[in-house]
Amino acid sequence: MLAGAMMLVLNDAAAKWLLDRYDPLQIAFARSAVALPFVAALVFVLHGRGGFRSRRPGIHALRGGLVLLATLAFFGSLRALPLAEATALLFTAPIIVAALAALFLGERVGWRRWLCIGAGFAGVLIVVRPGIAAVQPEAGQALLAALLYALILLSARLVHPGDGLWTMTFYMTAFAVLFGCVSLFRDWPPLRAEDAVFLAAMAVLGTGGAAFVSQAFRLAPASLVAPLDYAALPFAALVGWMVWGTVPDAMALLGAGVIVASGLALLRG
Fold it and tell me: pTM for this one?
């Protein structure tokens, strides 16, 4: 879980670096296109041709589209937001999952959990600080990414039980490539050697990080591994300081702390 969380932060940092030359759709498409052959090879080695079969490919298409949209929204937020603040807002996804499950799936949520949900969104307000117009659009994009990520998590319930981890990973990557092909109609800047290195790194870090996190949840109880995911926040702050010299201010740290505490309280029930 820790390895997966760190890999995903480095993936986001690479995307933020590339945003100076490429738009989010181009980065998302290129990352998935580079990753797809390796994911396909891994599926074939581990499971043979049967690893590519799914009884519900439509669900994978839906999830692949959601993954692409969530990626575009989050990468868009990284244009202006520091890495740590964007990561903190993305961590509202578990809080959104709890709220959506109660409102639309009929899951019972007691007053304590609703209190945690409310506290989590209060943490968002502390981070965003409504009224600072310069960051509002990007903060909205980060929250949209969190909402889409919450839908991805909820849609996992619709995946056929016979589809394994790497089958899901293959289809999500393949559909992200398919839907992202529209980026080929845009003007691309000349590919520099360092850009190719960053895109290749993103293919490894993004796909590997997601697989590590998923595998952690398969091997251990959520109550054990989920809190470790929040280690991404201080790591994102460290990377942001080392690469861009950005340091979260006191209000951003306070808001992030409230979001983390709310998520952990929801996890404990």
Answer: 0.90
